[in-house]
Amino acid sequence: MNRILMSLALLATIASPTLAQEAAQEMPAMAAETAGPAITVGDLEITGAFSRATLPNAPVGAGYLTITNKGTSDDRLVSASSSVAGMTQIHEMKMEGDVMKMNEVAGGLVIPAGGSVALAPGGFHIMFMNLKQQLAEGSTIVVTLTFEKAGTVDVELAVGAPNAGHMGH
Questions:
Q1: Which of 53, 72, 93, 126 has the most CB atoms around it within 10 Å of its CB?
Q2: Domain definitions of the chain by residue range
């Protein structure tokens, strides 16, 4: 029974089929309109950082943002960490046939030179596992991102509604 509840909490936190497709397509544009100031580290610009509220005692949560590489060489998001979780990983969710699969991104996530990568519901995301506290709507959480070239930066994620597709909902 606990495995079923954990699975349902996970799906509610990171997957909303309609929002997932729309958010993945619209995230870069919405991020610029709905978030606070962009965060710059090296050649990278981070915008649209948000998370979704979780239910009390939920074991997992997720974080979303857009990373734009304004440089001439690729960089790589190699790790993420946060004090709100026992473990934080960079994940990808994808459908294989009728089965949703979610895995840690092996070797990190490439941020292509001159390109953007959206970590959005239904795709790449930051996975917070073994949550130490509820992610409460209206609060903020801090995630530390480590990049291969640009270095390390702390990013505040605004916590929106449980079904938030972006900050501004």
A1: 126
A2: 2-160
Q: Round to whole Å and give the CA distance between 34 and 11.
A: 25
pLDDT confidence bin for 36, thresholds 50/70/90: low
Q: Which two tokens stand for residue 83?
A: 């004090």
Nearest Cα to Cα of residue 73 among 162, 167, 134, 150: 150
CATH class of 2-160: mainly beta
Range with lowest mean pLDDT among 32-36, 59-63, 68-72, 147-151: 32-36
Q: Please name the residues in contact with 103: beta carbons below 8 A apart, sequence gap of 6 or more.
A: 91, 92
93 CB burial (10 A radius; 0-12, 13-18, 19+): buried
46: its two tokens: 């981070």
State the DSSP H helix or E strand holding residue 139, giving kind and residue range, or none if neither: none
CA 105 vs CA 77, 91, 94, 108, 109: distances in Å? 10, 5, 12, 6, 7
Q: Kindly report the CA angle at 155 between 12 and 169, in degrees rounded to 5?
A: 40
The pTM score is 0.78
